Amino acid sequence: MAPVSGAAVSQPRSATGCPTAAASPSSSPTIAIASFSDGSCGGYWITAADGGVFTFGDAPFYGSMGGKPLNAPIVAMTPTRSGAGYLEVAADGGVFAFGDAPFYGSMGAKPLNAPIVAVAATPDGGGYWEVAADGGVFAFGDAPFYGSMGAKPLNRPIVAAAATGGGYLEVASDGGVFAFGGAPYDGSMGGKPLHRPIIGAAAVAGGYYLLGSDGGVFTFGTAPFYGTAPGPPLAGTTIVLDPGHDGGNGADPAYINQPIWNGVEEEACDTVGAETAGGYPENLFNWNVAQYLRADLVAQGARVILTRDSNTGVGPCVNERAAIGNEAEADAAVSIHADGGPVSGRGFAVLTPVADGINNAVVPASDQLGTALRDAFVARTGMPTSTYDGVDGLQPRSDLGGLNLTTVPKVLIRCV
Length: 416
Fold this sequence. Notes:
With 416 residues, the protein is α+β, with helices and mostly antiparallel strands. It contains 5 helices and 23 strands.
């Protein structure tokens, strides 16, 4: 694997004489793949969100945005027709050219209905298309417009594109493939089980590749397989952390006492939370735990969203906290709390949702999440399960808005 510094390295060769590369983990999530061929050997480049470029097979290294400042993360790359260069593209539409790749313009600094997620170069090298998450396609240079999934219903957002056969492919995160112009359709991962979402695509003569966020590569048509680039274990996942209460809640009783609908009945927007006999407030405990946990999850490649950005504000209300996880389409959401239980009580409990209509579809996954969290918490902390709440550390609850209103797998842990 070539280092992002561009220093020359010696690669082992296969029986056919083509270089091979042993994969090693990237420190940033894997986000894109682009194919390479020099007529005798082949390979591909894999790109990370920080702009780092990794080479496989015979693909050469021409430079990268790795280690350079970016206004938005890199989301895509495409090679030039000659194979002597490539483009890296950021979520805001910014385009960065390396090797012999020309610059024809970009959507950088222009208004977008959805972020840019992909780029594909024309076969003659005279232009390229930028593709947005909603399926919108933007043409630059001599690139023609063949159509798009823009304004059409999608099961999952578009995440990648590839030019092939006088047209282009748009690829969704569930592996669905949509062909435009003369682009052939050779199959997809749509409707098939995936360990992680699809995040990249690359075309070669006779087929194409799809890339998973865990570095897994899927081949279609006659596209050959050369290897994978495993990324951090949680790459491609979105996790919402909800540190309960807030440090300013006590100063604004009118706000936190306002009634909200929790999916079953009315409850207060939020509460002040508990406090130890020594004066350590629950809101601060929750906030501190969330900060430590966020750092651990980010280090493993996860995208982490917090429901509040400080411990000095008020709220948000529990229904808003649920909405944050829902709108992020989180793979998991965890509300973090302590508990004002009996003085003699000991241990922790994980609260899980009860089906109420809104959350029906995610109750089974939430139960699995709750059990996994309970087991991991016991194993890692040695803390016993609660002596007064739930059974074996698990307690279904039907009266909490954060659980009632969720449409993603969610639990609430009372850590102490």
